[in-house]
């Protein structure tokens, strides 16, 4: 099967609506969580502008462990409550960080990253991981990104069987 994702157009909410439609088509009837995360990371990385990393960290024995991603090699393990990813997992709240250098306890996996957004993945009341996007552009992410990525995460969680 071949999948071609046309370029996103319009306002940021319109682009996320298109992206989420593409994600739904990409996932289709696939229920494998890892396969769906891998394709979602690739879709986000190639469809959203100004990203240098897009991927997932998964909860494993009380810490976040690197999952499927697109971009440079990344930190493998992140303690809960540490950095942007660990904070999102611990608080269960999306973190929108315009300047990662101003974020207390930021973990610099890639020195080129300047802003970050992390969406917690919650299934049946349990935190199972996070969706993490980094940008070399300061202030890259906003509330429209939060809404669009939280919606995308919901599509992923609704379609996939957990590990």
Describe this structure in words.
The protein is of the alpha+beta class. It has 4 helices and 6 strands; from the N terminus they run ααβββαβββα. It has one domain: Beta-Lactamase (2-Layer Sandwich), CATH 3.30.450. Helices cover 35% and strands 26% of the residues. The chain has a 6-stranded antiparallel sheet, with helices on both faces. The two termini are 25 Å apart. The model has no long low-confidence stretch (mean pLDDT 93).
Q: Tell me which CATH architecture applies here.
A: 2-Layer Sandwich
Taking the alpha carbons of the first and last residues, their distance comes to 25 Å
Portion of residues within helices: 25-40%
Query: How does the helix and strand content classify structurally?
Result: alpha+beta
Any chance you could write out the topology, listing elements then pairs?
Layout lengths: L11 H16 L5 H15 L5 E8 L2 E9 L5 E3 L3 H9 L3 E3 L17 E9 L2 E10 L7 H17 L4
Antiparallel strand pairs: 1-2, 1-6, 2-3, 4-5, 5-6
Helix pairs in contact: 1-2, 1-4
Quick overview of this protein structure:
The chain has a single domain, classed as 2-Layer Sandwich (Beta-Lactamase), CATH 3.30.450.40. It has four helices and six strands, in the order H-H-E-E-E-H-E-E-E-H. The model has no long low-confidence stretch (mean pLDDT 93).
Give the key terms:
163 residues, Beta-Lactamase, 4 helices, 6 strands, 35% helix, globular
